[in-house]
Amino acid sequence: MLGLIVSLIIIGLIAGALARLLVPGKQEMSVPMTILIGIIGSFVGGFIGYLLFHKDSQDGFFQPSGIIGSVIGAIIVLLVWMRVSGRTTVRG
């Protein structure tokens, strides 16, 4: 169980960092937020991969396609986060 949590954190950090590098603009977020974006993106990428290819994780936990899907999911989550969190101004 501990190995799963550590691997989620490491994959989340890698996917979140790559997503932040690939998305243009400045993202004001900390390292734990980057890890959280990566972990959520990993689930989003896995869900999208399952919808498109109808395969799940029975072939193993670490796969190159899973890491690519995690990065794609993290990019999607980061873009949504930037869009939602960018609305902090009050119109008046």
What does this 3D model show about the protein?
The chain has 92 residues and is an all-alpha fold. The chain has one domain. Helix content is 72%, strand content 0%. It has three helices and no strands. Helix 1 crosses helix 2 and helix 1 crosses helix 3. The protein is globular. The model has no long low-confidence stretch (mean pLDDT 81).
* Unreliably modeled segments: none
Per the principal axes of the C-alpha atoms, what is the gross shape?
globular
Give me the strand/helix succession: HHH
Strand percentage: under 5%
Tell me about the largest β-sheet.
none
Number of helices: 3
Helix content: over 70%
- From the alpha carbons, calculate the radius of gyration and give it in angstroms: 14 Å
Question: What brief labels describe this structure?
Answer:
mainly alpha, 92 residues, single chain, 3 helices
Q: Topology, pairings included?
A:
Layout: H1 2-22, H2 31-53, H3 64-85
Please outline what is shown here:
By secondary structure, the chain is mainly α. It has helices at residues 2-22, 31-53, 64-85.
